[in-house]
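Anyone else keep sequences and structure tokens together like this?

Example one:
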Amino acid sequence: MKKHNFNPGPAILPEYAINETIAAMKDFAGTGLSILEVSHRSKEFEAVVNETVALFKEVMNIPEGYAVILVGGGASTQFFHVPYNLLEKKAAYLVTGEWATRAYKEAKLFGEVEVVASSEDKKFTYIPKDYTIPADADYFHITTNNTIFGTEILHDIDSPVPLVADMSSDICSRPVDVSKYGLIYAGAQKNIGAAGLTVVIVKESLLGKVSRPLPTMVDYRTHIKNNSLFNTPPVLNVFVTMMTLRWIKEIGGLTEIEKRNKAKAELIYNEIDRNKCFVGTVVKEDRSRMNACFVMAPGYEQYEEEFAKFAASRGMVGIKGHRSVGGFRASMYNALPLESVQALVDCMQEFEASH
């Protein structure tokens, strides 16, 4: 039976990236060594780092004056790296979910932090609209996609202060105007690779302005100066990301990716709205293209476990909602084909017909 991978992360990867990585695990770049054992100081691996950075710059149309850093530690590590490097007097945060909340809590360790708006009052089911970004903040932090509750900011915010974005779950899912951001960070394991690699895209002119001493590994300038090779990076994961970015470029870049992601989101949300057995959990205008969250409709709550088993029997993998909210979540990252979303829709329709 074909499996349809809706896992929220680590998420589905392009078949091309998987196959190329398998080959490199056996013989990397003709070295006779596995990518798992090659020296990160070798010219062959340095070429991988250089190509990965170049692909990010090309695919995301990153302007001059920005550096691309490849590090470990996950996006959660960036929750404190960002304020460590940028917070001098005050930071501003938009709190739209669990990960935004965690980022805000970490920043409070370094100075004054203002929450400009929060959607916690309605269980993070919408994106706040009416708020003012304080002009005296060192930066304004947003989380562009809410993986747990299923909301997404689908436009580039105009900010009077440097805009910092955690794009872990929607990076490279659509074109963005990088020039509107001071810093973008993302874990790779949703749209651009395997778990273990984090990318940081930072405007270099923002760095070196805080008065606190910076630990070597926390200072972004360390990694910029050393081409992300100050210490041993997650070598295999960098390779996977390079191959994933090659795939994105090959199929037509972020314009094509966005077209595909829009089609998948439209297909699943239309079914959620039509099907008598299910109901969406998010304000329609703020629905995420990456994570469609839904629950059983009123009167059908008792069928939740039955539908979960039914969907699994049809090859649906990873559609169970986050443990904190329940229900269902269809994560539709870049590499998920439209055919898989159609298979889930067919499954939902079949379940409706029998109930």
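And example two:
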Amino acid sequence: MPINHDAVGAKGEPRRASWDSDRCLLYAVGVGAGAEDPVVSELEFTTENTAGVAQKVLPTFCVVSGFTSKGGRSAMSALGSYDTRMMVHGEQGIVLHREIPVAGEIETIDEITGIYDKGKGAVVAAKTVATLVADGQPLFETTSAIFIRGEGGWGGDRGPTDAANVAPDRAPDVSITYQTREDQALLYRLSGDKNPLHSDKQFSDAGGFPRPILHGLCTYGFTGRALLHGLCDGDPARFKAMDGRFSSPVMPGEALTVDMWVDGNHAIFQTKGSDGRVVLNNGGFDFSA
């Protein structure tokens, strides 16, 4: 049965999710923090009891903070049923209104903002607004798009076609390389995304991949670390907004190189795999001085 193409504008019911110090630490090591970093020590993100070091939270933690959400139905339920093996993450964006606390509870409301016909599949775009329960004020917003193979071809709107944040034809101003582990996906999945596409070869075979792939949001987290340390001196308070498009799967064990081109308080970035292919493209990043 095809997805519901009339679900655009559907809003979810309020949902709540909470986290603690340990979950933030687990997320940090899941996106590579704590390994030998070429730029800066990351003890503030990977420990809670280092003398003279206050624990902080990686800004990209917001993309997994809602995985434990409880409450009403999500807007995505309005899509109907589809084969999750045919789904891949297409785009991800975040806007941070302030630093994420080490422990907290949020209330979220999501909305389907677009459904686009790409011929071989459908793109479903969504937005989520998160409010910190403790004070009732906005904490962050996320935007995302998923691509569902086999769900296109109904003659619908193809969606935006202009590419944003195109990398300039010159050497990057900053470039940072991180090495992922062979078991990176098994570690990252403990943050809440337990899709077997990233752990079960039978499942990844059915999806057309040679072996389980790394989570797109894990690549996103590695990239966010590079932006944080390369352009914000490791200070999460300076990390304002990040968005990008996933352009190629990443295999656990690959090295990821993040190239950054800076213009004032905005940067364009690309993330490349071990062989030089672009795996996260059209990246835009806003930060404060």
